[in-house]
């Protein structure tokens, strides 16, 4: 057991392991690229939906249930399904990752919008703000902390799941896991898993730190 | 049609046969016809569910009536753009409803910014209002949660005044603050109103607040019926029916006295002794100990013979009254005073004389019957007030 961790340490710190097209630096960059792009696409889809249902109070039931459905989808199954339908490309990977990220963003955005004090919205309307002014000047800024929590959760989930890219022969940190499994190289499998976990935790800490700085004036 | 005025001023806000039914079937306002003149404070009062808040919210179209018309300075408000109408009407609500993510200054600047006045001008105006409502200048950069409830409410008033609207709607603005702060805020509102003379519509369920603030009071009954609208003295002296009388409470006579002042109640010279003098022995009457400047300090008991300076004796407390204080506080002091006398002071706080308990009581009785006797035509029961 001790030997395994010693080997893992050597694997992670070896200079040659970080270089080249199969090196950690390159795989890490790929992994982050997949994750950020997928989260960005998910945000573009989910944020307007969450804001709209939160602002109008309509369609919440449908949107929240669809989100739960999306959350329940098995990611690998979805990758295989889209792969069979569309052939070999990054599309199945992105479809699966976006489907994973959208629910967290929709539900958190909606939660943030409904958490805005009705008295404050009433006051905004009473001062003469129009619907879009209430949305942009009052609701969105007040919902922002929860919206950012949703984005953070989505990104972490996507980072943890982006290993599936390797399952359909693309790169990312999943490469080590799947190659290691194929080569019965336990150290490589563990190394890949540890790297994914570290990236997820570091991103989570960085983003929650950013949230704390941005919203330091808020009461809660 | 109930006219809440004695014919002074132009008509400002006019409800004509207004009804409001909500989709769930409840009637919030029933056949309301009411005019409020320009200037002065009209208080809408009644227990919860009587339609007073709905009535207020119909004026700035936060709620639209089911039927009937409402005009503001002769203009039908339903023909106006709702957002634009609201920018021209100040609006203050119970928990102040401040924007938690904006500084106090930016909260106050809300309406000027909406009107496109530009950030610099809006902020300058906001800073000016901070002082008007009695907040320190360093509050400008703070956020709402850093202020006390009373201070937040002042910011709410400042925000409503920022664009200098002629009409101010206040929906139980002082309902959530403690009684001491509430009294302060009420005083401040009256002081502000003396300066600005806005047309204020004020909703409360507290009849004492209504009597204290209102130039006229409209009493609503459950189901959205307006029962009576009259100046406070008239309302207290001649409630339209049992419902209004009950609502005004058992101390209606005393509340009436809170509306008269001591200004024309005669004073007698007082027997005084200065704090640094020795009180003469063998006295039989209560003496008022005064400071070197003439400010009353307390009553000296005739039974106790102080050994030295009068100021060192154990004095019984005195609560001196000014001419602007109410007959009700004089009545209270006349009961509390051991000497049966109330001490009267001038604006500088210097003793101006005393008035005997009997004189206060006689004046209180006279004020009460004077209020009740002459029937004025301006007040009349309205609607189906079958209590």
State the fourth-level CATH superfamily of the largest domain in chain B.
P-loop containing nucleotide triphosphate hydrolases
Widest beta sheet: strand line-up of chain B: 7-8-9-4-10-11
State the major sheet of chain B.
6 strands, mixed
Instruction: Tell me, rounded to a whole number, the average pLDDT of chain B.
Output: 85
Assign an overall shape of chain B.
globular
Summarize the structure.
Chain A has 220 residues and is an all-alpha fold. Chain A has 11 helices and no strands.
What would you say this structure looks like, in words?
- The complex is a heterodimer of chains A (220) and B (387).
- Chain A has a single domain (2-214), classed as MetI-like (MetI-like fold), CATH 1.10.3720.
- With 220 residues, chain A is mainly α.
- Chain A is built from 11 helices and no strands.
- Chain B has a 6-stranded mixed sheet with strand order 7-8-9-4-10-11, with helices on both faces. Chain B has a 5-stranded mixed sheet with strand order 1-3-2-5-6. In chain B, strands 12-13-14 form a 3-stranded mixed sheet, with no helix packed on it.
- In chain B, strand 8, helix 7 (179-196) and strand 9 (199-204) form a beta-alpha-beta unit.
- In chain B, helix 5 crosses helix 6 (149-161) and helix 12 runs antiparallel to helix 13.
- Chain B folds into 2 domains: 2-255, Rossmann fold; 272-369, CBS-domain (Roll), CATH 3.10.580.
- The two termini of chain B are 20 Å apart.
- Chain B is an alpha/beta fold and 387 residues long.
- Chain B is globular.
- Chains A and B meet through helix 7 and helix 8 of A and helix 2 and helix 4 of B.
């Amino acid at each position: 057991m001790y030997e395994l961790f010693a080997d893992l340490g050597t694997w992670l710190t070896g200079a040659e392991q970080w270089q080249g097209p199969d090196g950690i630096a390159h795989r890490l960059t790929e992994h982050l690229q997949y994750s950020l792009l997928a989260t960005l696409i998910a945000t573009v889809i989910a944020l307007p939906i969450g804001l709209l249902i939160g602002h109008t109070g309509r369609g919440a039931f449908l949107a929240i249930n669809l989100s739960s459905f999306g959350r329940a989808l098995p990611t690998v199954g979805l990758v295989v399904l889209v792969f069979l339908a569309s052939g070999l490309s990054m599309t199945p990977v992105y479809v699966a990752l976006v489907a994973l990220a959208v629910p967290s963003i929709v539900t958190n955005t909606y939660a943030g919008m409904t958490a805005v004090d009705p008295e404050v919205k009433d006051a905004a309307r009473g001062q003469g703000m129009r619907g879009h002014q209430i949305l942009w000047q009052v609701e969105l800024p007040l919902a922002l902390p929860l919206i950012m929590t949703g984005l953070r959760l989505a990104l972490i989930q996507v980072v943890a799941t982006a290993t599936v890219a390797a399952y359909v022969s693309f790169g990312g940190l999943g490469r080590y896991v799947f190659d290691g499994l194929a080569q019965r190289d336990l150290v490589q499998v563990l190394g890949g898993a540890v790297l994914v976990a570290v990236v997820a935790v570091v991103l989570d800490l960085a983003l929650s730190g950013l949230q704390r700085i941005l919203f330091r004036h808020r009461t809660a | 049609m109930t006219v809440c005025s004695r014919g002074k001023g132009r008509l400002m806000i006019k409800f004509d046969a207004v009804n409001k039914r909500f989709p769930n079937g409840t009637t919030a306002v029933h056949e309301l016809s009411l005019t409020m003149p320009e200037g002065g404070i009209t208080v809408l009062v009644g227990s919860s569910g009587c339609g007073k808040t709905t009535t207020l919210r119909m004026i700035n179209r936060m709620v639209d009536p089911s039927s009937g018309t409402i005009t503001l300075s002769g203009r039908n408000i339903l023909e106006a753009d709702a957002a634009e109408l609201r920018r021209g009407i100040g609006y203050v609500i119970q928990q102040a409803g401040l924007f938690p993510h904006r500084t106090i200054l930016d909260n106050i600047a809300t309406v000027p910014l909406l009107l496109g006045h530009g950030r610099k001008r809006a902020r300058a105006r906001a800073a000016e209002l901070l002082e008007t409502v009695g907040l320190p200048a360093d509050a400008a950069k703070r956020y709402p949660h850093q202020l006390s409830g009373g201070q937040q409410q002042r910011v709410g008033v400042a925000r409503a005044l920022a664009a200098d609207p002629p009409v101010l709607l206040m929906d139980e603005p002082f309902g959530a603050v403690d009684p001491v702060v509430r009294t302060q805020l009420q005083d401040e509102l009256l002081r502000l109103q003396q300066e600005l003379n806005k047309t204020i519509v004020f909703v409360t369920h507290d009849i004492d607040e209504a009597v204290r603030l209102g130039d006229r009071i409209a009493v609503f009954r459950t189901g959205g019926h307006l029962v009576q609208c009259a100046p406070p003295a008239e309302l207290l002296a001649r409630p339209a029916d049992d419902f209004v009388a009950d609502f005004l409470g058992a101390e209606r006579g005393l509340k009436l006295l809170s509306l008269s002042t001591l200004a024309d109640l005669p004073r007698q010279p007082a027997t005084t002794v200065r704090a640094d003098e020795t009180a003469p022995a063998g006295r039989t009457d209560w003496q008022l100990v005064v400071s070197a400047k003439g400010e009353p300090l307390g009553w000296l008991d005739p039974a106790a013979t102080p050994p030295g300076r009068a100021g060192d004796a154990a004095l019984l407390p005195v609560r001196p009254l000014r001419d602007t204080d109410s007959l009700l506080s004089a009545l209270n002091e006349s009961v509390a005073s051991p000497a049966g006398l109330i001490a009267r002071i001038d604006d500088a706080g210097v003793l101006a004389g005393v008035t005997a308990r009997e004189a206060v009581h006689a004046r209180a009785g006279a004020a009460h019957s004077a209020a009740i006797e002459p029937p004025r035509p301006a007040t009349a029961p309205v609607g189906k007030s079958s209590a």
